[in-house]
Fold this sequence. Notes:
It is a single chain. By secondary structure, the protein is of the alpha/beta class. The chain has helices spanning 14-25, 50-58, 62-66, 101-114, 156-160, 230-236, 241-244, 274-277, 286-302, 307-337, 344-355, 358-365, and strands at 6-10, 29-33, 48-49, 70-72, 74-78, 96-98, 118-120, 125-129, 133-136, 141-143, 146-149, 164-180, 189-195, 198-204, 209-217, 252-261, 265-266, 269-271. The strands form four sheets. Strands 7-2-1-11-18-17 form a six-stranded mixed sheet, with helices on one face. The chain has a six-stranded mixed sheet with strand order 5-13-14-15-12-16. A hairpin with a 3-residue loop joins strand 8 (125-129) and strand 9. Helix 9 runs antiparallel to helix 10 (307-337). The longest helix has 31 residues, at 307-337. The two termini are 29 Å apart. The model has no long low-confidence stretch (mean pLDDT 95). Flavin-adenine dinucleotide is lined by residues 10-16, 33-36, 46-47, 124-125, 150-152, 156, 174, 176, 213, 254, 273-275, 281, 284-288, 290.
Amino acid sequence: MAKARHAEIVGGGLAGLAMATALGQRGWTVRVHERASELRMFGAGIWIWENGLKSLGVLGVADQAMARAKSISAFDIRDQDGQAMMERPFADGDRMLLPPRADLYDALIAGATKYGAEIVTDSPVRSATPDGEVILEDGTTLRADLVVAADGAYSKLRESLFLTKKVDYLWEGYIRLLIPRLPDYSDSVISEYWNGSRRLLYCPCTDDFNYICLACSVDDVRARRVPVDKATWLESFPEHEAIIERFPEEGRWDRAVNVTCRRWSSGRAVVIGDAAHGQPPNLGQAANMTFTNVVSLAAAVDSAQDIPGALRSWEAVERPLTDHVQRWSQLYGKIVGHWPENLSPQRTRFLQFATALPWVQNQFNRAARHTPYGA
Ligand SMILES: Cc1cc2nc3c(=O)[nH]c(=O)nc-3n(C[C@H](O)[C@H](O)[C@H](O)COP(=O)(O)OP(=O)(O)OC[C@H]3O[C@@H](n4cnc5c(N)ncnc54)[C@H](O)[C@@H]3O)c2cc1C
């Protein structure tokens, strides 16, 4: 019997664990290196669209990940005057579920473990080589048929392989939190409230919790504070006191970044997830694209004699859609966020017009409606 192929994966986030599951399913031996001392996910929800759901289905983890998730059927996006600001309709067959991140993460840990992945915590990695070597911080060198850099947007591994083209630090950032569920609010509608460059996003999540994402400029010092400065958010959204008064002490702030790579692979080493295509979260597609790309990546390398060649062919197939999502996510942020505050009513009129165009809606939904490999 042929010896199983082996992968060393760097990063125990959503991308690394999805990759471990996908390769494990195909009989590879897999080791995941996570620099943190435990695998832990912070409190927030995550939008999982049809493409992500199908990919998680191929990985065999969708049922566990989505067990408590609310199913979303509509968006309600309003400006400072309570006017509907834009259209994001769901067509027949568009599905979006909203699980807690921790449920998704636990399902991927279970998936990776089921297929025999070895997950090593307290294992920071220094660099990788195109020959399939991983060099740990303590100097140990490990060899593999495939090295996967899944170490996030600020990836050290990507740069050790000279794959970075650009990391843009964007003007906006986000605080994410979970609040006790409000029975008076819809269980299936995502509501987004705008006031100037501040946004309050309210997402149904489980029977017990709702997911809140607060977006603001990085220069908006009071708004980006954690624990959240409730008074300043109340000034912007007084009508949503019922939501704001439930904000807990814990929350997580992240600045938006956009990552572009020269290539996604070098020899036997490949970058995935935010390390390859970190982006502002405006379309809620980054992790969905990761799952889609991971499923096809596992298939591409599994059947290949020439792994570097297979990685290049895989990128040629998968990258255009991922680039499209990144472009539209950035464009959305630029148009909506950089609009002068004194011209907010014009912003509403422009967005109402633009987002009613079927062409624009198709650009937003292209990734969600894409059928992933193997689904
Ligand atoms: C506000 C916000 C909302 C979002 N909402 C959505 C959404 O609704 N839907 C969606 O699809 N996506 C969403 N995303 C994007 C999604 O969260 C990310 O794409 C995803 O979490 C990235 O996973 P990752 O595993 O690639 O990276 P990370 O989560 O950054 O994981 C990288 C892991 O690698 C480890 N690591 C780093 N360096 C090393 C090293 N040298 N050695 C060993 N380990 C290392 C880290 O500790 C970490 O565990 C959102 C992002 C933001 C900021």
